[in-house]
Write a structure and sequence with these properties.
The protein contains 13 helices and 16 strands. The longest helix is centred in the middle third of the chain and has 18 residues. The strands form 2 sheets. The protein has an 8-stranded parallel sheet, sandwiched between helices. It has an 8-stranded mixed sheet with strand order 11-12-10-13-14-9-15-16, with helices on both faces. The protein is about 40% helix and about 20% strand. By secondary structure, the chain is α/β, with parallel strands linked by helices. It is globular and about 70 Å long. β15 and β16 form a beta hairpin.
Length: about 375
Amino acid sequence: MEYTEGVRFDSLGLSPEILRAIQRRELELTTPVQAGCIPPMMDWQDVIAKAPTGTGKTCAFGIPLVERALLQNAPWVQSVVLCPTRELCTQIVEELRALAKYKEGLRVAAIYGGQAMNPQIEALKKHPQIVVATPGRMLDHMKRRTIRLDKVSTVVLDEADEMLDMGFFKDVRKILDSLPKKEQMVMFSATISREVMDIGWLYQRDAEEITVRPVEESRPRITQYCCCTTGRKRFLDLVAILKKENLDRVLIFCNTKYNPAMICDMLSRQGLPAQCIHGDMIQKERNRVMAKFKEGEIPVMVATDVAARGIDVTDIDAVVNYDFPQDNETYVHRIGRTARAQKEGISYLFYSADERTRLKNLIRYTRFEIAPIAVSEDGIISPAEGL
């Protein structure tokens, strides 16, 4: 079934505690994916949801998980959420804890790679009802017998296409096969890949199919620009955009882990404070940078795609693709970091003359309007003719 409109949260039969947590965030209407997924999840149906990025999927599955959690005399893991990255893992946990703010006794634990095992073991000893995990670290805990999944009733695969495409197919199957009491399986995915379909066929029963069409009203409102530039001029064009466009919070994407630190250093020399995040950083440092960016203490963050699905900041003014994305889906996910929560945003895509064909293919694939611009030697930004 396709959904393009939301409904009122207070029409869904939710508890006063959940409604209070939702009202605390000044929300009245669901997003389309929430309208489609919450009712069948509350009725214990399997669900497979295809929805664009930034459409409120965490609340779509988080509300039913929190609402149905048994709190009295139930010291076991009841729901498991699997996701591809540690950034997304911590983001989901933060969202679930906000929804559970008035559900006394409900505990949510995060387990992911890049963090010491002992703190996670201690968190699991406190008997969380909901566990959010990356597949590899979940298997580590299962092998150590530091987590029991024999009473799990609901499992959610978030960003299922990305997770299965990253090589976690076998790991996900091992985890799913270890859930003898599973009553419900839910998948959220931007695309329905062959791997996603295979998991659905193997583990779901008469799943409710939810599709949120990327119609104009539900697409993020992002004004998109592209700029043909290369070499030293590419950095100078970046500086001009940051200085001339009065952007308070910007996320810059690079393809390799070596560029972010270099660009941060060069931006600082231009009087533009910036910090970076990439896969080689220890988790504690990455968390620190992410927190400072979210609090507005860092105006510019430079990142590799490891952060593309883990950043949930509602007021990012602009996303800059400093390097041309590796594929079309990556571009969609990158620019989806702006224009969150029904706000507007801007994206800039830098490309070289050799990448012109890739740009045309990107436009054909996404059907986005990407306006060409040029930056003069004195930093003036103006429309450009053609691609």
